[in-house]
Amino acid sequence: MGSATFTAPTLSAAQEQHHETLKQVYEVLDSRLLDIETAKQNGRISPQTAKSALHHTEGLMKEISAKANLITGCPLGIWID
Q1: Digit-coded pLDDT (tens) for 14-71
Q2: Confidence of residue 3 (pLDDT cuts 50, 70, 90)
Q3: H or E stretch at 77
Q4: What is the pLDDT of residue 80?
């Protein structure tokens, strides 16, 4: 299979700042996924609570990625610096 090359669009300073903020929030939520899994494995939260928390966090990540996609043309999950 061939590899695709993504060229980031030229962004205004405001767009770059907005994208960076979304990227930081996305990274915090990504680390939250690990925290939830760890809490579930350690028995600190029930499997049902973990499932709900994971679903909610992943939903937020999708929304943030979609907003970043509107700004840059590339969702955060596959952003290439």
Answers
A1: 888 888 888 899 999 999 999 999 999 999 999 999 999 999 999 999 999 888 888 8
A2: low
A3: none
A4: 46
Residue type, 17: Q
| Residue linked to tokens 């760890």 | 38
Residue located via tokens 């969702």:
75
The upper half-sphere exposure of residue 76, i.e. CA atoms within 13 Å in the direction of its Cβ, equals 24
Handedness of CA 14, 20, 23, 27 (dihedral sign): negative
3-state secondary structure of 76: helix
Residue in the block written with tokens 């990504």? 30
DSSP one-letter string for 20-46:
HHHHHHHHHHHHHHHHHHHHHHTTSS-
Distance CA(58)–CA(49), nearest Å, equals 14
